[in-house]
Amino acid sequence: MKIIKVFLVITGLLFGLSACSTVTPEVQPTYTSYPTYTQYPTYGPLPTYTQYPTLEPYPTYTPYPKPTEILPTETPEVTNTPKPTNTPEPTINPELTTDKTEGVWLVGSEVAAGLWRASGDCYAVTRDKKGDQLDMASGSKSIITVPPSAFAVEFVSYPDTCTWSYLGK
Predict the structure, then answer these.
(1) How many CB atoms lie within 10 A of CB 135?
(2) pLDDT of 155
(3) DSSP strand pairing (133-140 vs 121-127)
(4) DSSP state string for the chain
(5) In a domain? residue 4
(6) How far apart are CA 79 and CA 18, in angstroms?
(7) Is residue 150 part of a domain?
(8) Burial 49-61, CB ≥16 within 10 A → b, else e
């Protein structure tokens, strides 16, 4: 029993010394299993949370512009432009200018374009490719202009027979 008393005295002394020791708190081990709470809560900054990592793109490479190469220019030789010559008008087929009687005539292949005069009381109508009327002339000794763009000309006589004569352009 004496041994137990000695043992208890020694352990009590050791515990007493450890509580009053001058060892710094960083070195002294703590045996608390619960965190220590203060009377008033202290709020510190919360950690920043980002869902995705921040991406920093690589810098874009832009090539330095190259100087424009200036090539020597050649001066063109001066050439004299020939003077225009008067081109004679094409000759008209004499068959296209002969006198025409009543009927429908194709312009350019049966009748020449130009001025036509009636010999009596008649009328004439010029038409395009669709058959639409372009121009009309009627009366005694009437004159009609047949344009080169016309498709056909229709010479009509009433009540007498008329002859249509070519006057020229």
Answers:
(1) 14
(2) 84
(3) antiparallel
(4) -HHHHHHHHHHHHHHHHHHT----TTTS----SS----SS----PPPP--SSPPP-PPPPP-PPPPPPPPPPPPPPPP-PPPPP-PPPPPPPPGGGGS-B-SEEEEBTTTB-SEEEEESSEEEEEEE-TT--EEEEEEEET-EEEE-TT-SEEEEEE-SS---EEEEE-
(5) no
(6) 120
(7) yes
(8) eeeeeeeeeeeee
Burial (CB count <10 Å: 0-12, 13-18, 19+), residue 148: exposed
What is the span of the domain harbouring residue 112?
Answer: 104-163
- Residue 115 domain flag: yes
pLDDT tens for residues 60-77?
Answer: 777 888 887 777 777 777
From residue 118, give the alpha-carbon distance in Å to each of 121, 141, 158.
Answer: 7, 5, 11
Structure tokens given for 155: 């010479």
Counting the structural domains of the chain, the total is 1
Q: In this predicted model, what pLDDT tens digit does every residue of 107-163 receive, in sequence order?
A: 888 888 888 888 888 888 888 888 888 888 877 778 888 888 888 988 888 777 788
Residue 94 belongs to some domain of the structure: no
Which pTM value belongs to this model? 0.46
User: Which two structure tokens, joined as six digits, stand for 108?
Assistant: 């350019």
